Amino acid sequence: MTTLASGTAASNADKDDLTRDALTVLQPGFTGTTAPDWLLRRLGEGLASVGLFGRNIASPEQLSALTAQLRAERDDVLVAIDEEGGDVTRLEVRSGSSYPGNHALGAVDDVELTREVASALGRRLAACGVNLNWAPSADVNSNPGNPVIGVRSFGADTDLVARHTAAYVTGLQSAGVAACTKHFPGHGDTAVDSHHALPRIDAGLPVLQARELAPFRAAIAAGTRAVMSAHILVPALDPDRPATLSRRVLTGLLREELGYEGLIVTDGMEMQAIAATYGIERGSVLAIGAGADAICVGGGLADDETVRRLRDALVSAVRTGELAEERLADAAARVRALARWTTAASAREAAGAGSGSGASGGSGAAEIGLVAARRALRVTSSAPYTPLTGAPYVAALTPVANIAVGDETPWGVAAELARLVPGTETGGFAGDDAAAEVLAAAGPRRIVAVVRDEHRHAWMATALDILLAARPDTIVVEMGVPQAPPRGAPHIATHGAARVCGRAAAEVIAGE
Fold it and tell me: Is 457 marked active-site?
């Protein structure tokens, strides 16, 4: 047997169908705002997809130039991104999103609005050359303590999540951008973040069928072009392997029982749920063998060596008989089929474009996001709101951000409120001494306390207790899941921390 060692053998092997197929199923990332030489070379050798993250994006114009650079090497390349809108944004990673996330859309519960927001976001992505979006999240947030889904979910009601998932898929794909519905078979009932460890869902099969799987059925019926697997162990489906590596879940359930025929993409293989238990090479081989078609890697590992390691692992598995060559070929064929769909969809969009929305998405596209954010607000007050009489002090009670959201995306209401009320000051606080520090920093100014998932953080709830006892006129803005009882003068629930959600809240606080 020939092995992929180095030198001439590897060089020759790069040209054969097996090696091209192994490259085709990878969706790697890279660092920088231009494509490195190694990535362009791999595109020429068979790589068919590239994943973009916030580190790759500086402006719409730069992103358009980057995707054009990729297409100059391979015109049908799949350019993927994790752009959920709301808290998880890559297009606007340093400013906050112009579109509210799923939880805000679920709070409004207008499926046409969800479709319009997804379509506007899709047009912005398409204008920048992105044609595959790792969204929407179809997870039912049935566990209020979920540390990684939360506002990324449309809500805790299965039917609501199902109808908005379908609307989102329809809207996104109407812009020529393939939707990738995630995280199959459902990440909502977890108490562990799969970026850090392997979560487990112990619900029985009847519950899973009625709750977790319903939104994915809706997405499939709506024609979602891709589905992303979850790194979660669901013993009722497979007691031994997480969904990403389970033939019972990916082939038996998703393909055969649910009748799904599109692309199956793994969640990031460098996430600890897989990397710390199986390793990325073996994990990738097992995932393709289980029925996955594309290996997402690049959030943390983003270099040529990672691509080479995964390519060689897949080729070696085929040559040793661990992985059927037909399975790898089928996976690569599904990647190429999606590439053909996006190319045709892009051509249709270009032919049907009117005035266009421009690389930034246009003011009209962004305006629908603000409209949605305003509609998502829920204002609760036991007494009429007393307007500000001076510039307030905004205290952001800041939890640790989960990895999906990241800590480089700003959140809160301070920036937007300062625009409306000059002189507004702000600070970030955390821990047991947060309330005392806020009171000292605020002085006589009225306090706006901004929280994120108060119900999940005991120190945050305690801080609000102290602040409201000392300063009953404190305004509370909840930018996470509004699970805790509303309190404050008033309490404003935004259902997400996107920039437009902060603006909508600031408008209420400023009396606009």
Answer: no
